[in-house]
Amino acid sequence: MRLFALLLCSLAVGTVHAAPDSRATEVKLAKSLMAIKNNRLDIAMNEVDSVLRVNPNYKLAQLVRGDLLMAKAGAISSFGSAAHASGDKIQDLRDEARVRLQRAQAQPQTLHAPQYLWQLNAQQKYALVVDTSRSTLYVYENVSGEPRYVTDFYVTIGKLGTEKVSTGDQRTPIGVYFVQAELPKKQLSDMYGSGAFPLSYPNEWDKKNNRTGSGIWLHGTPSDTYSRPPRASNGCVVLNNDDLNKLAPYLQVGITPVIITNKIAWSNAQDQADRTALLHEIEQWRHDWASLDTNAYLKHYSRNFNSDNTNYDAWSRQKQTVNAGKSWIKVSLGDVSLLSYPEQPGMVVVNFDQDYSSSNLSNRMKKRQYWVKQNNRWQIIYEGSA
What we know:
Elements: H1 5-8, H2 24-37, H3 41-54, H4 59-72, H5 87-105, E1 117-119, E2 126-131, E3 136-143, E4 146-154, E5 157-158, E6 175-178, E7 183-184, E8 195-198, H6 204-208, E9 217-219, E10 231-233, E11 237-238, H7 241-247, E12 257-261, H8 269-290, H9 294-298, E13 301-307, E14 310-311, H10 312-324, E15 329-340, E16 347-358, E17 362-374, E18 377-385
Helix pairs in contact: 2-3, 2-5, 3-4
């Protein structure tokens, strides 16, 4: 029997793993697909019926059920071959079926930490990593500064994939972002579902690279839609409404990092060594600033540095002038976080609370720096308020 051959031929037959409640629907659908592969159509129908009883607006499950009914009549030989069906929409559902089956068969990565979460500060109770190649959003808990896997969710990204560059390009950005706000359902149109969490796109690196656009959110699905295909948004990261509601308690406005990557990479020994070296360099930067050794302090900055349209030369002149009028400086740093930037080897986003006092000025602020490893040395290419 060739039913679903196109869908399943590239996937190894494996066990559909047990899952927490948030993935129970996905597991049932996967069991239905595997039963079809094994020509157990009655079992397949029972599984997909149980999915639709709970989620009647699940279009993929509706398609599977329709194909099963046609298969019993001997009228189908491939996935989604109903007459007059839209080719693009059927392909979208085929893509979702592949992703759902792969997710159900994959073991959660509970023993490995993602490469990007070098150090979380005490305020960051959780961090999110979106692997666009797997249509998966991972949640990690901060345990003494180190990430520990909590759960994961299926997500939808932009229609044209990733690497967002300009307004309206229907792509999802790759980078390090933060949750900026929480928008409740009552403030939104139905297309955003049960709520939305705007992200900080474009970030400082995006602006430095002249990337435009806005309105990249985590949000839900319309009330008549259980889930959307893997690539169906205008650039946002979309979860079904139940999953968004489960994700919401993990999110802290202005604090929770959201790292979006093409393909998740896992931490290794070199990351640990680089983290140690960068923390040492940050401390040396603080020390050189506090010592009023302006030349040593400026050596921590790259010639490609900028800060709110201020380049290295202007920054250097300003610091030399300011420091010349001071007799002493004290600087302390707290709540330091280090987030390695996806697709940019050797670049790390550093956030911290800065307590500054001097002979003629005192202030406290949340600061953000971008450090880059150049010629085996860490230097700052961006600095500003967080």
